[in-house]
């Protein structure tokens, strides 16, 4: 099952979504009253996955446990970001009252470069899938073969755009929750899928490469796969060494309320102590970016700042849980 109860407010959101789906289909497609007046709006089917809020924070906020338009776009940049969020929303819950004539232009922007200077060749795929509760998928272009990190929702348009960037040689799946349309992508791109054997389920039994043991494993010279059990038995992070970036899946993310790191402990399948041991492994790695499966990315000013954030998370979690 995907992380349908990922965020603090999600249980209520998902419960109310299901209740309203059963009782009032008309309400589901309707505009939430929490939206400000204007062209853009979020509907009742929002699952509060946070995607629109980190993609277009100037426009979308959480209001009463789900996303809403808090301010209509006031610039071309804000409008573009809001339309990118509209295309990425896993439940197609973002709408415009007037047809968006620029939507094709925005479709052509995906995958989105994250930082052409600091993270050359690293893209956000957009098109999040409800099957993975709106998890983020990334594309890394590399001379030895491109890598898709987790699975976006399959669309022909996105597949065409990814092929224009060279397709994908690998699809690395961080863990069992974020596999979404992996089979469709593998069929289209002929990529070799990779997942840890501890997270193989019926849906992923045909994955080409199953990691066993504790690693680490390598993809060429630039990528290292770090086994980080805790959230799931087979959670693995991808370390892209030249750009000092770690793709974390659901092992660790950024809190939506602060700059602190955050563990989705209430959804961890394994002991907290094991997940903290997996965090300690990250202290030894030279990286500055967290690229998570859900929520905001983090860029620290240097590796020491990254380490102190991890140490703080370990200390706070240990104290809160009474772990010796
Ligand atoms: Zn997960």
Automatic annotation (TrEMBL):
Highest taxon in the source lineage: Eukaryota
Coiled-coil annotated spans: none
Keywords, in A-Z order: Signal
Residue span(s) of domain Metallo-beta-lactamase: 134-294
Gene3D superfamilies, alphabetized: 3.30.70.20, Ribonuclease Z/Hydroxyacylglutathione hydrolase-like (3.60.15.10)
Keyword check for Signal: yes
Signal peptide location: 1-16
Pfam assignment, any one: Fer4_13
PANTHER family, alphabetized: METALLO-BETA-LACTAMASE FAMILY PROTEIN, METALLO-BETA-LACTAMASE-RELATED
Full protein name: Metallo-beta-lactamase domain-containing protein
Native source species: Oryza barthii
